[in-house]
Amino acid sequence: MITSLQRRKRAALAVTSAGLVAALIAGCGGTTKGSDAASDSGGSGTEKTADPNAPIKEGLKIAFLPKEIDNPYENIVDKGGIAAVEELKGTGKEVGPSDASASSQVSYINTLVQQNQDAIVIAANDPNAVAPALKDAMDKGIAVVSYDSDAAVDARQVFVNQADSEDIGRSQIKMVSEQIGGKGKIAILSATPNATNQNTWIEYMKDELTKPEYKDIQLVKVAYGDDDDQKSFQETQALLKSIPDLKAIVSPTTVGISAAARYISSSPYKGKVVLTGLGTPNQMRQFVKDGTVKEFALWDPEQLGYLAGYAAAALASGQITGKEGEVLKAGELGERTIGKNGEIILGPPTVFNADNIDDYNF
Amino acid sequence: MREKLFRWESILVLLCVAVFAWGSASTPGFAEADNVSFLLLDYTEVALLALALLPIILTGQIDLSVASIIGFCSALTGVLWNAGMPFETIVPIVLVAGAVLGSLNAALIVRFGLPALAVTIGTLGLYRGLAYVVLGDGAVTGFPENYRPIAADNLGGTFLPYATLLVLIVGVLVAVVVHHTPVGRSLYAIGLGEQTARFSGIRVDRIKFTLYIVSGVLCAIASLIYTLRYNSARADNAYGMELIAVAAVLLGGVSIFGGRGTVFGVASALLLMAGLRNVLFLNDVTNEIQNVINGLLLIVSVLVPVVANLIRRRRNPAPAAEPGPPPQETLPDPVGATAAHGTPEEDQR
Q1: Chain B 134-163, CB below 8 Å of chain A: which residues?
Q2: Which of A157, A348, B24, B36 would you call most buried, defined as having the most Cβ atoms within 10 angstroms of its Cβ?
Q3: Domains defined for chain A, CATH in brackets
Q4: What is the pLDDT of residue A20?
Q5: What is the distance in angstroms between the Cα of B274 and the nearest Cα belonging to chain A?
Q6: DSSP secondary structure letter of residue A342
Q7: Residue A335 β-bridge partners
Q8: For the domain that residue B27 is a member of, what is the CATH number?
Q9: Which residue of A has its CA nearest to B138?
Q10: What is the three-class DSSP state of B120?
Q11: Beta strands across the sheet bearing A274-277
Q12: How far away is chain B from the Cα of A265, in angstroms, using its nearest Cα?
């Protein structure tokens, strides 16, 4: 009895004092969201001017930091990047965490700073969590390039983007139109209903369809396979059953297109219904060879890394600073102009078909 | 027993010295103020969790929900900040939230007498899940710049981060309580035999209850540092950190069955792990290999006392006399530091 009374008293005391402390602290005028936004304007790095004729320095040390070290897609990107660095007589390496959690890249960034790397090329897991460390790196004169997944805009100099969304969307319609002779019903097999990139692409696809040259093509349905192999497989089946005169399926997701191809290749629709979209050559090779799929597209990840490698070297050598309008000379890829917010675009996706698919391995 | 303990701690200190000497000699960029700051900062949260876990493990219990409490508190910080609440109000709320989560653990373990391992594996999932319920899988950022230095900057011009200073203060407090107070002696007594401790008048339940609440609050502090340091509140913050913290405690020579271990040992283990991680990172050793090395170290730390005991028994086949054999009978001591120290926990018995 006594103890329970004591306990209650103690609990009451604890709660009151906690409340008091809270009230006291809160009373001292608070720092709320946005209230100190003005103080955040300190520019990162020193204002340098680009010298487009500066030679690329030899012996540059450039590190590639993927989301996680076992991400096969980013491994290929980094392979392309390291090849670019070696082409420029520098040394490239790939390091990274074994998990894609928000903050695990920060230790790596700090390590790369200590190792006096000349440039860091990163696919950010969390654009904000890596920002303070990347800003520190830039303050110490290290060039920072992001690729695939951008970091906060003020925490890197250049973002190398695979392709712009508009290009991807519009090129999908062009590709499907060529294959069905510009006429007939088509359907889209997407990932999840709220995937930002998918929805942006689909918007551009719809917009492209309003052009007069596509007036005979009707988009009859957008199905969602949730980037799940089984669900995508079933959605394909349902699309073909419910729309008997369907001419083509466009699946702008690697999971969707390969599941759809698997269904179609063993169904009577093989060779009658066109399938295209975004896929990887390794996943799609057998379906291109057996005639299920004629053409599909994807940006070439090795080229993405190659471009990022060149961007990093150019930044570290002072050829570019990341300002809009500067021109990046990117070896065998030619030249790229830096767009808004330091964005460099690789270009339209590569189209794969029976003629070239064996040249790619990813 | 005393000699055994000190022998392991001496080994830890030697290993620390070896790692730091090796790093300075072989690895450019290691022995620089900036790097030492990184190295210390990188282990701030792990150190706080280890200090929360140490007293709990001394009593033979465990708390595996620590990292999930960080996740929840971080998510809560994000949601409240997004809602426009002043950061000064969020701090006490988050601390109270940590205490509440800790006391939920305590209630299940102490009141219902459930095994701590099962309960905290459960709350490990539960609290992490709640973190996602609160914040979803997005991230909140833009925390006040004027508070960020507390989590990320150094004490005026030195290499010592404020956060490490905080860890040191908490460490000293824990050391004082554990090694120099009756409550501290009770922890060892509970760890050596809960029934006996109960019969000798130690208020076992009350102590255990308090330990879990303190653990919750320390996790909340760690979450605030984590959130500010990365300027990012997310539900997956500190994911998996509980295992690193438990490893640090065990590597520090604390018995998982309770009743044995010191703050000094855990502090040495933390420094060793932080230093080793940093040197390996600078030498581009992959995470997988680092995990292998840490795993081996941990196994060695558990193995050494057992092997030492076996050797001693073989040398001295008399029926196991619990209070260790006289000092001159023990194995050669690497630093000869064993003799002088009297550990308070030994006085208990």
Answers
A1: 139, 141-142, 144-148, 152
A2: A157
A3: 61-162+301-346 (3.40.50.2300), 165-298 (3.40.50.2300)
A4: 54
A5: 11
A6: G
A7: A329
A8: 1.10.3470
A9: A126
A10: helix
A11: A217-224, A184-190, A246-251, A274-277
A12: 37
As for how many domains chain B has, the answer is 1
DSSP string, A257-314: HHHHHHHHHTSTTTTTSEEEEB--HHHHHHHHHTTS-SEEEE--HHHHHHHHHHHHHH
Report how far residue B25's alpha carbon sits from residue B191's, in angstroms, rounded to the nearest whole number. 42
Which own/partner contact pairs does A23-28 have at CB distance under 8 Å and 24+ positions apart? A25/B88, A25/B89, A25/B91, A25/B92, A26/B86, A26/B88, A26/B89, A26/B92, A28/B88
Q: Is the pLDDT of residue A2 over 60?
A: no
Q: Which residues of B touch A25 (CB under 8 A)?
A: 88-89, 91-92
Do B152 and A132 make contact, defined as CB atoms within 8 angstroms? Answer: yes
Q: Which pLDDT tens digits describe chain B residue by residue (349 residues)?
A: 555 555 788 899 999 999 999 999 999 989 998 899 999 999 999 999 999 999 999 999 999 999 999 999 999 999 999 999 999 999 999 999 999 999 999 999 999 999 999 999 999 999 999 999 999 878 898 898 888 888 888 888 788 999 999 999 999 999 999 999 999 999 999 999 999 999 999 999 999 999 999 999 999 999 999 999 999 999 999 999 999 999 999 999 999 999 999 999 999 999 999 999 999 999 999 888 988 998 898 898 888 878 877 888 888 765 544 444 444 433 444 333 333 343 444 444 3
Partner A contacted by B132 (CB < 8 A): no
- pLDDT, one tens digit per residue, over B30-43 is 999 889 999 999 99
| CB-count burial class (<10 Å; 0-12, 13-18, 19+) for B320 | exposed
The helix or strand, by DSSP H or E, that contains position A235, with its residue range, turns out to be: helix A229-242
* Phi, psi for residue A336 in degrees, rounded to 5: -130, 140
- Inter-chain CB proximity A101 and B239 less than 8 Å: yes
Per-residue tokens: B31: 């022995």
| CA-based nearest residue in chain A for residue B92 | A22
Name the residue of chain A whose CA is nearest to B32's CA: A114
The pLDDT of residue A19 is: 54
Domain holding B261, by residue range, is 2-347
Counting one residue from chain A and one from chain B, the pairs whose CB atoms sit within 8 A come to 118
- What confidence tier does A47 reach under pLDDT thresholds 50, 70, 90? low
